[in-house]
Specification:
This protein has 476 residues and is an alpha/beta fold. The chain has 14 helices and twelve strands. It folds into two domains: 337 residues, Metallo-dependent phosphatases (Purple Acid Phosphatase, chain A, domain 2, 4-Layer Sandwich), CATH 3.60.21; 93 residues, no CATH class.
Length: 476
């Protein structure tokens, strides 16, 4: 019974501390990108119903049926909690996933790919009804040497509003989006490039037409509108500013000096030579991997001229970056969300105002190493009352045994001395009269003190010699 309450106390304490800690760490820490002051999550955050709020994530690197126990019950659990807490606080209108949903989707069979999609839906949980759009990344459909149209069609069919080439366009709250298969542009001559060029040319022609006649109409897809509760389009709109461009691979950038809001780990990363960067990948089964890919300059210029994007959101590099291209177009690189990609993950919250302004917030999540160390500390703290109780119990037990041994020895020695006094002095110290007895004993004791001490010392020495002989015999 005594052990039961210790176990119950430890489990209750661990559960309480776990709940408090996980509630705190899953709250994202957000600040406005390029702001002069460290504005927090709710600073300058107007919940205007006319504004559109989007959460942008990338590099989930899900493994589906190949997930380890640690992935399923630790990383996936906290990823689900991150989504849940972020959706509850930020109340986004749409979720945008900028590629690399899977860790190695291009290597998976159809059955294993289905397990990745199920894992993605399970992580979103009750927020699966929220409109979402997924662009394709190189981990989903493969790098240039492994890029196949059949694989792209299979992956694209798993997500809403992607055509057979992995591109799509849609609109919500009068904000138009276009997503492009960046791998087709990166790899150049391939069977998918014509599909991507067709989408870009169609978008460009539509923008030109709308610019000439000033129309603001939107061609709706009624089936998708009923299914996803927002306005999906066959063709993009927004002639004044161009669409919001979504792609996995960043466009060609002049210099990394435009990147800011870096963490200490990002600064260390940027100080590494490029040869080490190309070999780096946190998920160990990926092998050599290049995080420095960008869309070639000619393709980047083609996009600027044809689409005139309002703002560009890209991913792939795992880090947050906010740059301005020479023509003034802003590009925001979304950091990786998976702990397997980087120790300090994050995501982006973009608010599209009615006045064409776009407010970008960079949100950070706790480091995996910090969470692991914290849970070890919580576990140690939870079991410490039981451990301390057991140690104190054993200490008290040892003290009682020691006291009993010393008490027995003292009684034995006192008995020897008392017997010697009574025998030699012939006096019994029992009243009455106590004073006469004490004086008689004192007079008798004085001449015998030396003899008694010698006998006592000899007795202790004899006992010690017996113990030594017994120990030597035991070891022999």
């Amino acid at each position: 019974m005594s052990n039961s309450w210790k176990i119950i106390l430890s489990v209750t304490l661990f559960a309480t501390l776990f709940d408090i800690y996980q509630h705190q760490i899953t709250i994202p820490s957000c600040k406005i990108a390029n702001a002069n002051s460290n504005q927090t999550l709710f600073d300058d955050f107007d919940h205007n119903h006319e504004d559109l709020t989007a959460i942008l994530v990338s590099n989930l690197l899900l493994r589906g049926s190949d997930s380890s126990f640690f992935d399923l019950f630790f990383r996936d659990y906290f990823l689900s909690q991150f989504f849940s807490k972020s959706f509850d606080i930020l109340k986004p209108d749409i979720l945008l996933v900028l590629g690399d949903v899977s860790a190695k989707g291009f290597e998976l069979t159809s059955k294993k790919w289905s397990s990745v999609v199920e894992q993605f839906e399970r992580i979103l949980g009750p927020y699966l009804h929220l409109p979402f759009h997924v662009t394709l990344g190189d981990r989903d459909i493969g790098e240039c040497s492994k890029l196949k149209a059949s694989l792209v069609r299979r992956v694209a069919s798993s997500f809403p509003e992607l055509n057979r080439g992995g591109c799509g366009s849609f609109g919500i709250s009068n904000v138009s989006f276009i997503s492009i298969n960046a791998m087709a542009l990166l790899c150049g001559n391939n069977e998918l490039l014509s599909d991507v060029e067709t989408v870009i040319e169609t978008e460009s022609a539509y923008l030109q037409t709308q610019s000439e006649d000033g129309e603001q109409s939107v061609k709706l897809n009624a089936a998708d509108e009923a299914s996803y509760q927002h306005r999906w389009r066959d063709n993009p709109t927004s002639p004044q500013s161009g669409p919001v461009l979504l792609l996995h691979i960043p466009l060609q950038q002049i210099s990394n000096s435009y990147c800011n809001q870096e963490s200490s780990s990002s600064a260390i990363w940027n100080s590494l030579p490029n040869s080490l960067k190309k070999l780096w990948r946190a998920d160990t089964d990926s092998g050599p991997y290049d995080l420095l890919h960008t869309i070639p300059p000619n393709a980047s210029e083609y996009i600027f001229q044809a689409l005139k994007p309002r703002i560009i959101f890209s991913a792939h590099s795992h880090k947050f970056c906010d740059v301005k291209h020479p023509d003034g177009t802003r590009e925001v690189t979304v950091p990786a969300l998976a702990w397997t990609a980087k120790d300090d993950p994050g995501f982006i919250v973009a608010t599209f105002r009615r006045n064409e302004a776009v407010v970008v917030r960079h949100c950070s999540l706790p480091r995996e190493s910090h969470v692991v160390v914290s849970f070890i500390a919580i576990f140690v703290l939870s079991i410490s009352p039981a451990v301390i109780t057991i140690l104190l119990h054993r200490l008290n037990k040892n003290e009682l045994l020691s006291s009993a041994r010393f008490s027995s020895l003292d009684n034995h020695q006192n008995g020897l001395v008392s017997s010697s006094l009574r025998t030699d002095c012939g006096v019994s110290c029992q009243p009455p009269p106590l004073r006469v007895c004490s004086v008689a004993l004192l007079l008798c004791l004085l001449p015998q003190i030396t003899e008694i001490n010698e006998q006592f010392a000899f007795s202790i020495a004899s006992d010690f010699q017996v113990v030594v002989e017994e120990r030597e015999a035991y070891f022999i």
